[in-house]
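Our consortium's second objective concerns turning raw sequence data into structural hypotheses that experimental partners can test. To show how far this objective has progressed, the report includes one record in full. It was chosen at random from the queue rather than selected for favorable results. The single chain below, 298 residues long, was entered without modification.
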Amino acid sequence: MKMKDASMAPNRLLYLLMSAITAAVVLLPAAVFAHQPRIASVVKSGPVPILYPEISKAFYDELDGMPRIYEIEANGPFILYLNITVPKSSNPNGRYMAEVLRAGDTRELVATLPVGTEPWKEFHEPFAGDCYFLGPEFTREMPPGRYEIIVSGNGNRGKYALAVGEREAWPLKETLHALRVIPGLKKNFFNVSPAMFALSIFGGIYLLVLLLSGVLIGFLYRKVMRLFSRPVSGRGSKNIGGSGRVLRFVIAIVLLTWAVTTAWNPFLIIVSGFTFFEALAGWCGLYAALGKKSCRTA
């Protein structure tokens, strides 16, 4: 009976790992109730196009001496929502306004989002873990046409984010895009370490998915070695001692730290999860492939 329970332990561990990864993957898009990120500063000249203006997006931008113009081409009526915010960490005193104009034979001023006289309220967005000061908002149903949104103020200098649209939409493509750009925004827009992304709901779940994937790969690789290697080879058994396990813990921590403090390289994070598994299991995948071991007990 004890042998049967012992043989079932790896299967239970596999089930738990796969369940944890599945739950994390399901929760990842569900945890995103923020705006789709867009880096408007990549548009060096001309208006910044806003496609699908009812879909919630945040355009991260920095004025460099001139107002910034955004453009909407609408073939039908739509609900326009606008909100200006500034990052607390990199531009806490920046204050900006926006003008909404309907373009045509003549340019008609539709609305103005003034800086206002009231203090801008601080807001913490938990899903990406960012802090802002909230500025003016605007919501109105708009007829078809071409619109320009002109953002200016603060000497036309400094960083801000223009939120457009209220309807949340997070298909897989947008989720992956957000995972790529948010670490860079942490560094270049908010002026904080990309590692801070790990402290947010979105980043924490993403990190968990990658680490558990590395652990699962290590577990499956060891299981395959046990199934298809000769019993005498010991390729599925422990093959490293205490010093080898400590070394792999250190390597895993270094890889993980390097990954989350630079560009959140998913490959490095998965490799760190694999290395954590090696340290926990007392088993080295490379040694197993070569049929080697550095401990006395197999």
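The partners drew two points from this record. The CA atoms of residues 194 and 262 lie 7 Å apart. Confidence is low (pLDDT under 50) at residues 1-8. Both points have been shared with the crystallography group to help prioritize constructs.
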